[in-house]
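Appendix B. Chain record.
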Amino acid sequence: MVLNDQLLTEQVLFDHLPITHRVLRTPITPPFPEKSEAAVFAMGCFWGAERAFWEIPGVFTTAVGYAGGNVTDPTYERVCSGDTGHAEAVLVIFDPSIVSYESLLVTFFENHDPTQGMRQGNDVGTQYRSAIISETQGQLTTASEVLDRYQDALTDAGYKKITTELIQDSDFYYAEPYHQQYLAANPSGYCGVGGTGVPCPTGR
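Structure tokens predicted for this chain:
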């Protein structure tokens, strides 16, 4: 996973991108703490997805944006058109000594339905697809193992095949300022994210 350097250093598109997380009061752009790690997840509307992660102890900060696409500097309007290939995504910066990457994957799988393909509930389109964007080979391996375990659990519960994409080394572009921690500023806002109710098994 690569944070878009031009956007971070020059703020070409969004020169008013908030510096501080609305809830956690931590920076949402680098530099991050030295021992922290990054993860990126796409699971439908990024407003509700971001809230699911900022509530986890050990998460340093979160931000919403776009990942998994094929153009540079995507905007919300272009992503919604479906012509950029990007999915709405959440950047999660976490302390691995407090919360493991596997624990974040459990949150990811349990907070949306990963079998729905190019949609999540009433939200339809490529931007709402399920995806895990891995920063390292280790993350990719762990994601694949957790996905396989959850597939077994979902199959036993009568669900179809998981459609979650596993992507490595995709750029992450920060979304427009008004999207950041949207549900903290608009508590009654639309969420569009909901799980299957099937627990995701851990490796322990």
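Further analysis of this model is presented in Appendix C.
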